[in-house]
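As a next step, we paired sequence with structure tokens, yielding the entry below.
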Amino acid sequence: MLLRYFYDEKLAHASYVVGCQKTGEAVVVDPMRDITAYEELAKEEKLNIVGALETHIHADFVSGSRELNDRFGTKLYVSDEGDADWKYQNLDGISHQLLKDGDQFKIGNLVFDVMHTPGHTPESISFLLTDKGGSADKPMGIFTGDFVFVGDVGRPDLLEKAAGIQGTSDSGAASMFKSIERFKALPDYLQVWPAHGAGSACGKALGAVPSTTVGYEKAFNWAMQFDDEASFKKALLEGQPEPPYYFAVMKSVNKVGQKLIKDLPELKEITSAADIEALLAEGKQVLDMRPADAYSKGHIQGTLNIPFNNSFTNWAGWIVDYDKPLYLLLDTKVLDEALVALRSVGIDEVYGFAEADSLMAQAENLASYENVSPSEANEMVENGEAYVLDVRNQTEFDEGHIDNAQHIMVGTLKNRLDEVDTDKTIIVQCQAGARSAIAASVLKANGIDKLVNMTGGYSKWQQEVASVKQ
């Protein structure tokens, strides 16, 4: 048997290729949309990818199952659990098998047993894997998707918070409690292969270790320590991070179906700053992907700034308007990587790109904003000339914040601009300075120019200002 692990750092998403080397057949569990790595492995190991297994209808990335079907004629193995709202609607003309609790299927000498594990979503299933190529007659591990992570379990509130389906948080938490009781009954030696690691918004305390065991999670996972359902539900629902807006879009895309990458628009290279300004005037979106410091010193008015780092995909999903054409300003050496990242969360309407540094060199009347230290920001507030806009998560704000700060989480800012006081200078602040820079660009792109970004964020403010005041 062959088992390979693939990890997308920008999405904190794990997928797996499982192959029977005797028959040369393989499947991909919870595949990412960019299937290049799977293709390369299949060629290297002389495997034919015959199946794509999905643990649930994903909300945080676009599944690659349809891409695999188009490339390899792959059969989709998907859940038939949950009510009518959680049935796949993108299976016409595609080879597939609908799965329920207790079902079993084989790929070569590999046996997959299906276990219904609702809680994160109603249709969620897990796959127990037995390798009968040797002498094993019991499973060696379980692919848990977003059910059990290392040190955490899947959040049940996404359907309510991201998709607006009222009442599902409580019922999902109740289902999760029952699913965990089933999980606890599994053998301690079973390996656990989850679909996410630290940094995913599908839970609140995910570990950064790629795999674990049933026994270890039973002993140390906080969610496994409850015997009382009411206490468990309360603990599970408390402190969950805000779900990105794009989660609702992804849920729909993976349920109904998305375009194949080969059918997406071809990109046009733009070489003139005037052309970018014209696109902005037409209402198009332009995303400047340079580091925040470079953007703050000079950028084309109206552009948004999301630096291309490991947090890029998440913030793009929050901030980019899926219904508007998008153009990119970036180092063109990372264009392909940037497209993979954007398409992984369904941002497909990308029509053009430009070399950012080249355009900045030729553009006239570049906009900018000032960065200030916490001490300078404190002086501005005490002089009555400015106020603080805290753009961190709700849980961070609740744990401690600057006195009289207004709180609008950065991802929600574009929809709450009418709440922003523009009479005074706005001091935009987060925990360390990265998210506040993104927020500053959102404000600037919407014509709110009277602002500064506080470098070092709340952490630095505690050191420079709060400690002095005490």
Notes: The longest helix spans residues 168-184. The first strand starts at residue 2 and ends at 8. The two ends are 62 Å apart (CA to CA). The chain is about 30% helix and 25% strand.
